[in-house]
UniProtKB/TrEMBL annotation:
This is Activator of Hsp90 ATPase homologue 1/2-like C-terminal domain-containing protein. Gene3D superfamilies: 3.30.530.20. It comes from the Eukaryota. It comes from Rhinopithecus bieti. InterPro entries: ASHA1/2-like_C, START-like_dom_sf. Belongs to the AHA1 family. Residues 67-131 form the Activator of Hsp90 ATPase homologue 1/2-like C-terminal domain. Signal peptide: none annotated.
Length: 140
């Protein structure tokens, strides 16, 4: 059996910061195959929360709200060890609520329903419960 290998530690990386954004671009000096190749799908989910964009955003990160978007790598424990999906959370203000739009690329084909269930039950519903326990900032 041949197992996937990690990228070589000796490889040089080029890091660029765009002056107008708080994002980094990392480029390898030569092509590198990271992770493992498996069939994947993309998911899109939306959920409404009875709170402000700022309060919902603060549940996910302590960083300042700059662009109403969080992009992160995501991996479930039962996925291949070096496989990660890319999750993008967009926080969209609506009338008295916030719509959270989740886009996930790179979910293993046989795991998409499990991934949807995980986000719905372990994240969205838990956050809604937390928000019910937390008084709005204007009451403090």
């Amino acid at each position: 059996m041949i197992l996937p290998t990690k990228a070589m530690a000796t490889q040089e990386l080029t890091v660029k910061r765009k002056p107008s954004e708080n994002t980094l671009q990392v480029q390898a000096s030569s092509p590198v195959a990271l992770g493992v190749r498996i069939p994947t799908v993309a998911l899109h989910m939306m959920e409404l929360f009875d709170t402000s964009v700022e309060q919902l955003y603060s549940i996910f990160t302590v960083k300042d709200l700059t662009n109403k978007k969080i992009v992160m790598k995501w991996r479930c424990r039962n996925w291949p060890e070096e496989h990660y999906a890319t999750v993008t959370l967009n926080f969209v203000p609506t009338l008295g609520q916030t719509e959270l739009q989740l886009d996930c690329k790179g979910v293993p084909v046989c795991k998409e329903e499990n991934m949807k269930f995980c986000w719905q039950k372990q994240h969205f519903e838990e956050i809604k419960g937390l928000l019910q326990l937390t008084p709005p900032k204007w009451l403090n």
